[in-house]
Amino acid sequence: MKVENGYSEKLSSCGKFLLKANYLNGKFHGFCAFHNLDGTIRDNGTFNNGLKDGYFETFWNDKGGLKITGTYENDIKVGKFSHYDSYSKLTEEKYFI
After folding, report:
1. Labelling 35: which of 8, 19, 45, 76 has CA 20 to 30 A away?
2. Residues 24-40, buried b or exposed e (16+ Cβ, 10 A)?
3. Residue 89 falls within a domain, yes or no?
């Protein structure tokens, strides 16, 4: 069942979190967290009316460390995006205007 407004959690058949999300008018709105099938965090960030809008983090599936961090405004990358290897060592920084 799709949530139109408010907070919702989706669980796997094993009872692990797949999604923790806020909705407004059926779209992601506010902080949302996306998980792998084993329940580990995959991505999290803030949405505004279905668009990425704020700080986001992406994590490595096998180790759980940071993979990419950066900020979006209206679904567009802005500012610094940092990329990390699977040992959480910074490997690259890109800047977006």
Report:
1. 76
2. beeebbeebbbbbeeee
3. yes
C-alpha to C-alpha distance for 59 and 96, rounded to whole angstroms: 21
Count of C-beta atoms within a 10 Å radius of residue 6 = 10
Please, are residues 74 and 54 in contact by the beta-carbon 8 Å criterion?
Answer: no
pLDDT digits (tens, 9 = 90+) for 33-83: 999 988 899 999 999 999 999 999 999 977 778 999 999 999 999 999 999
45: how many CB neighbours lie within 10 A of its CB?
A: 20
CATH for 73: 2.20.110.10
Name the nearest CA neighbour of 22 among 58, 49, 53, 56.
Answer: 49
Contacts 24+ apart (CB under 8 A), 91-95: none
